[in-house]
Amino acid sequence: MDVGVIQRKLGDWECPEVFDTLKLARRLLPGLPSYKLSALVEKYELASGLDGEEKPHRAKYDAIVTARLFVLLAGRRSLEELRDQPAGGGSDEEPALF
After folding, report:
1. Pfam families annotated for this entry (predicted)?
2. Could you read off the pLDDT of 78-91 as tens digits, one per residue?
3. How many whole angstroms separate alpha carbon 1 and alpha carbon 15?
């Protein structure tokens, strides 16, 4: 979602390789009751050590915990295996605001 915003604003910007942490989490962490970022943050303690002023749904907080989630997921597979994860799939829901 954020990549599309950046591309619209910067026009000729060339997007680097992108990994969707939601799709990766669904495939690499099967069987979890929820794949919401907040649920993954809680389960894997991804907000540990953050300043108490950092709050969910704020850019800095979300960027940090998402990066930590990616590191967790990337530690389970090689870069080549992450690239080979299917991009689509019937189990992936479309992103929604509500």
Report:
1. RNase_T
2. 888 888 866 544 45
3. 13
